[in-house]
Amino acid sequence: MNLKELAKTDTELFEIASLLDVSIVKHVNPQNCLSEKKKFFRALEKGEKHNPVYEFLPRNPIMKYLKINPDYENCIKTLDSIDTDDSAIGKLFEKRKTLLKSKIKLLQSIGNAEQFTENSISYYGSIDSILLKSAEQILEIVPRDEKKDVSANGARYFLQFHLKENGFNWKVFTDDKLVSDAVIVPGLKQIRIRSDAMFSSTEIMRLKFHEIETHLYRYENGYSQPFKIFGTGVGEGWQRTDEGLAVFNEELFGVLTTSTLRKYAGRVVAVYYSMKNSFYESFEILREHFNDEDSYMLVQRAKRGLARTEEKGAFTKDIIYLKGRNEVIKYLEKGGNIKNLYLGRVSVKEADLLPEITHLIEPKYMPDYGERFKNKMIK
After folding, report:
1. What is the pTM of this model?
2. What is the mean pLDDT of the chain?
3. What is the per-residue pLDDT across 212-260, written as a single tens digit (0 to 9) for each?
4. pLDDT tens digit sequence for 49-69
5. CB–CB of 190/172 below 8 Å?
6. 214-227 core/surface letters (b: 16 or more CB in 10 A; e: else)
7. For residue 173, what is the DSSP state?
8. pLDDT band with cut points at 50, 70 and 90 for residue 5
9. How far apart, in whole angstroms, are the C-alpha atoms of residue 77 and residue 82?
């Protein structure tokens, strides 16, 4: 394909990606999570069991968990009609097509435990024995107590100041419907923080490296490239690399607390047991390692996307933090260039293809790694 044809394919994929520019997390986050949490703990106090019943956004693609949005079917037909070739960029285009189709299937299956779990595994990956063992070993670490005296508003002011200081026209908001402490919404150029979240001073710095110096940097660098797919996501597992690199940066810059590392491991374990058990049964297992509040939140994250949480199944996104970290470390240990990971929202699996693509622009935004890589893990 010549440059004009490549540009046409890139634009076609970008247009479909824009139509599908909905946050999966936004759609799987229950709208009634707070009321269901209250019901759960009221039942727990009485010695009773309650498995939350979740409701999702009205614009959910399956509307009442069964109705399929025909627009998504048209998107799949359009994706199938887009031509690619065997060049390096052509291979990335093809992988992007596959990923977009997987995203559609995942969105269509929200609410249906069996289908949603299957499509979630296809999109985010599964847990292998090595990952599970690694997570279980981390859970044996005794967490250090840290004073959490910074509110969500305090975190918002800190991140907004950092964004403004570095010339980014992004906004930070608090949100009472979030399941996680914080989330980045690139399409809206927003960072959202859960309204009732509390942070330690170390965790505030962790948010900076995680949300801004990893996710935001890769997004901004990606949209400066001649091909738009570098901004929307390139290759299989680019989200694993996105989160894995964020965790790697937290660890490298000394802001990954034992408590947070155990939560990343807990997410893996929560997904593993949620795939085999109900919400309540998974919660009981997590209580062996965490307090009731943390156990509930870990299982709630794993059961997002299921309407009836007494059913087996899980949203497997939460495995990508620890799994992605391991993949990034392995890539660097084999001599991979970390600059490649900041060319955009790319995956370590496709990083070796990038030098074959002409006209790529050096990343403008990267963390200040300085002398942290005397072992030459970073070139």
Report:
1. 0.89
2. 90
3. 999 999 999 999 999 999 999 988 789 999 999 999 999 999 999 999 9
4. 999 999 987 644 444 443 445
5. yes
6. bbbbbbbbbebbeb
7. E
8. confident
9. 9
92, β-bridge pairs? none
Amino acid at 210: H
DSSP assignment of 73-110 equals HHHHHHHHH----SSHHHHHHHHHHHHHHHHHHHHHTT
CB 252 within 8 A of CB 283: no
Which among 271, 284, 278 has a CA at the least distance from the CA of 312? 278
pLDDT of amino acid 377: 46
- Give the HSE-up count for residue 11: Cα atoms under 13 Å, Cβ half-sphere: 6
Partners of residue 191 on adjacent β-strands: 172, 184
Q: Copy the structure tokens of residue 373.
A: 């890589």
* Sequence-distant (≥ 6) Cβ neighbours of residue 222 within 8 angstroms: 230, 231, 232, 234, 343, 344, 345, 346
Q: Which amino acid is at 83?
A: D
Percent of the chain exceeding pLDDT 70 equals: 93
DSSP 112-139: -HHHHHHHHHHHH----HHHHHHHHHHT
Helix (H) / strand (E) element for 171: namely: strand 171-175
